[in-house]
């Protein structure tokens, strides 16, 4: 077991990538705190982990609220005695062009998608630094490396997450803390599944743009988080690992050698 005796807290783990990560980390021996705004989702995931023989506690929290962030770190320590792994992963997505986005939606996006990552990191450091060990993993996105149409705030937040990761990594490296990010491409989580059925043409074009020709599965991101959380990544710090089926390896210009993705 790669995470025996470790305690992990994952925000937004009542669904999607967070859920897959909570289950994957638990399978490797970690005690997991499943945090989500969706109480039912958090409870279900924690129950499923316990049902499979793992250790988990569910916590209903809004990570956009600083007091609830403070409480979630305290909850992990109260329940399991320590905190070794923090995975900042929750996100609320507002779509639309920047020119049409309300200030309120921009602020809400930043609050959940960036400020909560900073504040959870700050609170976790208070627990991790005295023990001189800890791994923090932030969920970035390929939309933080280049911009996607119609995701103005999201593009900005995810770029911020990547540099928050680097800043945390360099400032706390000598205190035994590592901080890294995972940057997923298009992954089959509930919001994407919903989008695929509502907008099948967009889904098909997206799939064609991915060199591997398919969306990723949540477990394929969870496996990256597991690596970053484990001691196998002991010299990996301030990095972001892209898991996108090759999407960002391509400039976007169609093939000059023939038509179609399989030329
Ligand atoms: P998801 O909707 O399945 O999971 C996100 C979870 O976060 C939900 O359970 C939701 O209830 C929770 N959440 C939202 N606001 C919260 C809040 N204020 N406090 C606590 N929990 C809250 O979505 P997902 O696709 O698994 O997304 C997880 C992360 O992966 C996000 O950071 C997202 O930006 C990132 N990501 C996803 C994709 C993709 O294609 N699915 C691609 C790149 C990055």
Chart the SSEs and their pairings.
Layout lengths: L6 E5 L4 H12 L3 E6 L2 H13 L3 E6 L5 H15 L4 E4 L14 H29 L2 E6 L12 H21 L4 E8 L5 H9 L1 H10 L8 H12 L10 E4 L20
Parallel strand pairs: 1-2, 1-4, 2-3, 4-5, 5-6, 6-7
Short structural description:
The chain has 263 residues and is α/β, with parallel strands linked by helices. It has helices spanning 16-27, 39-51, 66-80, 103-131, 152-172, 190-198, 200-209, 218-229; strands at 7-11, 31-36, 55-60, 85-88, 134-139, 177-184, 240-243.
Properties at a glance:
about 260 residues, alpha/beta, 7-stranded parallel beta sheet, globular, binds nicotinamide-adenine-dinucleotide
Structural class based on helices, strands and sheet pairing: alpha/beta
How would you sum up the global shape? globular
> Helix segment count?
8
- End-to-end Cα distance, whole Å, is 43 Å
Task: Give average pLDDT, whole number.
Answer: 96
Largest sheet: 7 strands, parallel
Percentage of residues in DSSP E strands: 5-15%
Which strand order does the major sheet show?
A: 3-2-1-4-5-6-7
Q: What is the string of SSEs from the N terminus onward?
A: EHEHEHEHEHEHHHE
Bound molecules: nicotinamide-adenine-dinucleotide
